[in-house]
């Protein structure tokens, strides 16, 4: 694990999202990290020292002096840490951090820290949108701190919007990625990568559609991996239950092939690398019934018309983009993939076969072959996250030629 043995200092401030910290601590401990928790006095209204210390296996401090009169040194706490996470970070604590209002143990420790600082803000909708909050977050970034943006959803006030603290899994992944990639060259920094993912659904009537079994896992894994390598990532996804953990990824949801085509060409001109991993429906109903079709007859005939070929259109309009396609085949796999590479003006194609166990739709694994006009490379069965790494390694090698 990239965080095994790391010393993680978590500073909890007084917000309802403090209850989520239990899950974050447990995750870090399971992965072999050491965790020390400190709290603002107000945080004790939301979580107890007992529960946090039980999970972290260390005493939890909220004041400069312990119950026995011992001094809790903010300097020692700060210098001990490999990373400091302020979560939840309320508007009050954020303001104190940025403007040096040092009136509690958390702020004193923060101001003594030499390690990277991650801030996971959490507050109500209007507070998060307030210009002072935006300015303080901007200043925090200028200080070199890393912001884990608040998410949208239902807030404690009953309002719905941005302000929820990022989920513990998102915070943990962000910190783990920091340690994994810290000091490494961001190989795709400065590049914009557009990825299509998932299926498309073509409506028959208001309740039925034509679709396929694509889960979107491969495309989402590619998006996460490209972002880790420093790329600006635009992910255009059909209906999928997959979630993005890296909030820097620009996610656009669509339903039909025509919607996906339109969204792709909103961005295509400014893209350096295009990866079309979506399983786009080849055909759509010619007419969409305005009302639910009743089950009156023994048979039903639906006339289908050909959908626009998104990948072919990307190939035709390609100017500077490096274009990657996918081929999922059941017969004559290599021949069909090579034909698609040529006909659609691709730079590279990724082939997977439904004949290979563990490959294709819905699986967490995949087994691929990659073709260019002059090369062929085969890979063993791997997780889709690992496959995403192999694909992007191959893309980067081609860009260097």
TrEMBL record:
<dbReference type="Pfam" id="PF02441">
    <property type="entry name" value="Flavoprotein"/>
</dbReference>
<protein>
    <recommendedName>
        <fullName>Coenzyme A biosynthesis bifunctional protein CoaBC</fullName>
        <ecNumber>4.1.1.36</ecNumber>
        <ecNumber>6.3.2.5</ecNumber>
    </recommendedName>
</protein>
<keyword id="KW-0210">Decarboxylase</keyword>
<dbReference type="GO" id="GO:0004632">
    <property type="term" value="F:phosphopantothenate--cysteine ligase activity"/>
</dbReference>
<dbReference type="Pfam" id="PF04127">
    <property type="entry name" value="DFP"/>
</dbReference>
<feature type="binding site">
    <location>
        <position position="292"/>
    </location>
    <ligand>
        <name>CTP</name>
    </ligand>
</feature>
<dbReference type="GO" id="GO:0071513">
    <property type="term" value="C:phosphopantothenoylcysteine decarboxylase complex"/>
</dbReference>
<comment type="function">
    <text>Catalyzes two sequential steps in the biosynthesis of coenzyme A. In the first step cysteine is conjugated to 4'-phosphopantothenate to form 4-phosphopantothenoylcysteine. In the second step the latter compound is decarboxylated to form 4'-phosphopantotheine.</text>
</comment>
<feature type="binding site">
    <location>
        <position position="326"/>
    </location>
    <ligand>
        <name>CTP</name>
    </ligand>
</feature>
<dbReference type="GO" id="GO:0015937">
    <property type="term" value="P:coenzyme A biosynthetic process"/>
</dbReference>
<keyword id="KW-0456">Lyase</keyword>
<dbReference type="GO" id="GO:0010181">
    <property type="term" value="F:FMN binding"/>
</dbReference>
<dbReference type="InterPro" id="IPR035929">
    <property type="entry name" value="CoaB-like_sf"/>
</dbReference>
<keyword id="KW-0511">Multifunctional enzyme</keyword>
<comment type="pathway">
    <text>Cofactor biosynthesis; coenzyme A biosynthesis; CoA from (R)-pantothenate: step 2/5.</text>
</comment>
<comment type="similarity">
    <text>In the C-terminal section; belongs to the PPC synthetase family.</text>
</comment>
<dbReference type="InterPro" id="IPR003382">
    <property type="entry name" value="Flavoprotein"/>
</dbReference>
<comment type="function">
    <text>Catalyzes two steps in the biosynthesis of coenzyme A. In the first step cysteine is conjugated to 4'-phosphopantothenate to form 4-phosphopantothenoylcysteine, in the latter compound is decarboxylated to form 4'-phosphopantotheine.</text>
</comment>
<feature type="binding site">
    <location>
        <begin position="308"/>
        <end position="311"/>
    </location>
    <ligand>
        <name>CTP</name>
    </ligand>
</feature>
<dbReference type="InterPro" id="IPR005252">
    <property type="entry name" value="CoaBC"/>
</dbReference>
<keyword id="KW-0436">Ligase</keyword>
<dbReference type="GO" id="GO:0004633">
    <property type="term" value="F:phosphopantothenoylcysteine decarboxylase activity"/>
</dbReference>
<keyword id="KW-0479">Metal-binding</keyword>
<dbReference type="InterPro" id="IPR036551">
    <property type="entry name" value="Flavin_trans-like"/>
</dbReference>
<dbReference type="GO" id="GO:0015941">
    <property type="term" value="P:pantothenate catabolic process"/>
</dbReference>
<keyword id="KW-0460">Magnesium</keyword>
<feature type="binding site">
    <location>
        <position position="344"/>
    </location>
    <ligand>
        <name>CTP</name>
    </ligand>
</feature>
<dbReference type="InterPro" id="IPR007085">
    <property type="entry name" value="DNA/pantothenate-metab_flavo_C"/>
</dbReference>
<keyword id="KW-0288">FMN</keyword>
<dbReference type="GO" id="GO:0046872">
    <property type="term" value="F:metal ion binding"/>
</dbReference>
<feature type="region of interest" description="Phosphopantothenate--cysteine ligase">
    <location>
        <begin position="193"/>
        <end position="401"/>
    </location>
</feature>
<comment type="similarity">
    <text>In the N-terminal section; belongs to the HFCD (homo-oligomeric flavin containing Cys decarboxylase) superfamily.</text>
</comment>
<feature type="domain" description="DNA/pantothenate metabolism flavoprotein C-terminal">
    <location>
        <begin position="188"/>
        <end position="396"/>
    </location>
</feature>
<feature type="region of interest" description="Phosphopantothenoylcysteine decarboxylase">
    <location>
        <begin position="1"/>
        <end position="192"/>
    </location>
</feature>
<feature type="binding site">
    <location>
        <position position="282"/>
    </location>
    <ligand>
        <name>CTP</name>
    </ligand>
</feature>
<keyword id="KW-0285">Flavoprotein</keyword>
<comment type="pathway">
    <text>Cofactor biosynthesis; coenzyme A biosynthesis; CoA from (R)-pantothenate: step 3/5.</text>
</comment>
<feature type="binding site">
    <location>
        <position position="340"/>
    </location>
    <ligand>
        <name>CTP</name>
    </ligand>
</feature>
<feature type="domain" description="Flavoprotein">
    <location>
        <begin position="6"/>
        <end position="177"/>
    </location>
</feature>
